[in-house]
Write a structure and sequence with these properties.
This protein is of the alpha+beta class. The protein has helices at 2-15, 19-22, 36-51, 59-67, 89-95, 106-112, 131-143, and strands at 55-57, 73-77, 100-103, 121-124. The protein starts with a helix and ends in a 5-residue tail after the last helix.
Length: 148
């Protein structure tokens, strides 16, 4: 019983970290990083896409659909360790001209997708129900400078 309460307290503490505090936990490859404002827009778009079942969640699923030629915005978590788990995804995106951006927290990324489980990569697919939000996010993600 005490362990459950301690785990809940730790979980709440992790969710309460601000954007600035989350930046301390980023890994070295987290470029291009979404700004605070863009991060909020991406989470909002993910919530809308999840409602319409228009997201792909997790490295395995996202990688499969990138290879199949599916289009969308790739959102990666910047605090995922070890990096080897998903370091090939940005290269695949660049090869196929897919826009991608990093957000600071995998826990927040999972929560935006409607899951209690953290996730390190999500693909947002376009859909007419939230097209305006999607286009806005797409424009801003494409404007981010790519890493060298």
């Amino acid at each position: 019983m005490a362990r459950e309460k301690q785990a809940e307290a730790e979980g709440e503490g992790a969710a309460e970290r601000s954007y600035r505090e989350q930046l301390d936990y980023l890994n070295p490859i987290a470029q291009p990083l979404a700004s605070r404002k863009l991060t909020r827009k991406l989470y909002k778009c993910i919530r809308k896409a999840a409602k319409h079942k228009q997201i792909r969640r997790g490295v395995k699923e996202v990688q499969k659909f990138i290879n199949k030629g599916e289009k969308g915005i790739m959102v990666l978590a910047g605090d995922t360790l070890p990096i080897d788990v998903y370091c090939h995804i940005p290269i695949m995106c660049e090869d196929r001209s897919l826009p991608y951006a990093y957000v600071p927290s995998k826990a927040d990324l999972g929560a935006a997708a409607g899951s209690k489980r953290p996730t390190c990569v999500i693909m947002i697919k376009p859909h007419e129900e939230y097209q305006e939000t999607y286009d806005e996010c797409l424009e801003e993600v494409e404007a981010l400078p790519l890493p060298l």
